[in-house]
Specification:
Blueprint (H helix, E strand, L loop, with lengths): L3 H17 L20 E5 L4 H5 L8 H9 L3 E5 L10 H13 L3 E6 L11 H20 L4 E4 L7 H20 L4 E5 L8 H11 L4 E4 L10 H8 L6 E5 L13 H10 L5 E6 L6 H20 L1
Parallel strand pairs: 1-2, 1-8, 2-3, 3-4, 4-5, 5-6, 7-8
Helix pairs in contact: 5-6, 6-7, 7-8, 9-10
Length: about 300
C-alpha cells in the first residue's frame, strides 16, 4: 500500500497527465509509463462483474482492488450505473481515487448509460440529455480518466438520426474538451451498431475529442469484423467482448485473432477492455480466460 505522501504524489501525477494526454490515446498509469513494445494494454471493464456487483458480493469501491489483486490488471473501466447517485459526491470520488492509488490502478474511463438520448428528436430532451452527461464529465476529470463512453441513441430516418446524434455529441464533446475528457461512442444497439452509420456520425462531429469504442460483440445485422474496421479510425478504446471458450482457450463465437489484427493494424496501441458477458462460465473464470486469450494473441502479434 502506498504511504500518504506517495499516494498524493500518485494522484498529482495522474491529474497532470490527464491535462496533457494525447487526444487519441489515454492517460498512462505510472507503472506503465515506460515505452512498451506490446501491441496493446489490457484493462478490466466493470460490466464483466455485473452479476457479482448487483448481488452485493462485490462493492463498487473494491473494484479497482479486484482488478489488480485477482486479475493482475492495472486499469479499469467503470459503469456509471454502479455508482450513479455518487457522480457529484466529492467524498465518494476521493475514496475511489484513494483506493485506486493504493493498488496502483489507473481509472481509464466511465461507461455512461440511462442519462437520456443524445440524439433525441425533441430539442429540449436532447439538451437535457447532454446536460445530464455533464456530471459524468466532471466525475471523469476528478478520477483522472481520459474518457467517457456514451450512446448515440436517436429516432427518425438514417440521415435524421445521424444529424441528431451528431448534434448532441458535438455539444457534449465541446464540454468534455474544455475539461480534457474524450467522448466516445460504442456500437450499442440501434443504428449505432451499424459501422457505416456510426462512421458517418463521426465525420459530422469532426472533433478530435470525439471518437468510438468498437465492441467485438455488439453488431447484429452488420458484419462485426467490418464494423470494427469501420470504427477504428476514431477508436480511443476497444472492448474485447467474450461469451464462451472451447477447450483450446479460443472464444467460441468471436475470432479474437482476426479482431486484434484489425485493431493493431489500424495503429491502435492503447487499452483493450475485458468485457466477459457469458452465462456458462462464472464471471471470474470468464474474465481470466479472456485475459489469457488476449495475452496469447498479443504475444503472437508482438512476435
Amino acid at each position: 500500500m502506498l504511504d500518504p505522501l506517495s499516494r498524493r504524489q500518485f494522484l498529482s501525477r495522474a491529474s497532470g497527465a490527464a491535462a496533457g494526454a494525447v487526444l487519441a490515446g489515454c492517460l498512462p498509469h505510472p507503472a506503465a509509463a515506460q515505452p512498451t513494445q506490446a501491441p496493446f494494454k489490457i484493462s478490466l471493464a466493470q460490466w464483466s462483474l455485473h452479476r457479482t456487483l448487483r448481488s452485493g458480493q462485490l462493492d463498487h469501491l473494491d473494484f479497482a482492488r479486484t482488478a489488480r489483486r485477482d486479475f493482475g490488471l492495472e486499469a479499469v473501466e467503470y459503469v456509471n450505473t454502479f455508482f450513479k447517485a455518487r457522480a457529484a459526491d466529492a467524498g465518494y470520488l476521493a475514496e475511489m481515487n484513494r483506493r485506486a492509488a493504493d493498488h496502483g490502478v489507473y481509472q481509464h474511463l466511465i461507461m455512461i448509460d440511462a442519462e437520456g438520448a443524445l440524439g433525441d428528436p425533441d430539442p429540449e430532451r436532447r439538451r437535457s440529455a447532454v446536460e445530464n452527461h455533464h456530471k459524468w464529465v466532471e466525475a471523469a476529470a476528478t478520477l483522472g480518466c481520459a474518457t467517457i463512453r456514451v450512446n448515440a441513441e436517436s429516432n427518425g430516418t438514417w440521415e435524421e438520426q445521424q444529424k441528431l446524434a451528431a448534434d448532441g455529441l458535438s455539444r457534449l464533446t465541446e464540454y468534455g474538451a474544455a475539461r480534457n475528457i474524450n467522448v466516445i461512442v460504442e456500437n450499442h444497439g440501434g443504428l449505432s451498431s451499424n459501422g457505416t452509420w456510426l462512421s458517418g456520425v463521426m465525420k459530422l462531429v469532426n472533433h478530435p475529442r470525439c471518437g468510438t469504442l468498437p465492441d467485438f460483440g455488439n453488431f447484429y445485422e452488420y458484419d462485426r469484423y467490418q464494423g470494427v474496421t469501420d470504427m477504428m479510425p476514431w477508436a480511443k478504446a476497444v472492448s474485447a467482448k467474450s461469451y464462451d471458450f472451447d477447450g483450446g482457450g479460443e472464444e467460441t463465437t468471436l475470432d479474437f485473432h482476426r479482431f486484434l489484427r484489425i485493431v493493431t493494424g489500424a495503429g491502435f496501441r492503447s487499452w483493450i477492455g475485458v468485457e466477459y458477458e457469458g452465462n456458462r462460465l462464472p464471471e471470474r473464470e470468464g474474465i481470466t480466460r479472456t485475459i489469457t486469450l488476449l495475452e496469447r494473441v498479443r504475444a503472437e502479434l508482438a512476435g
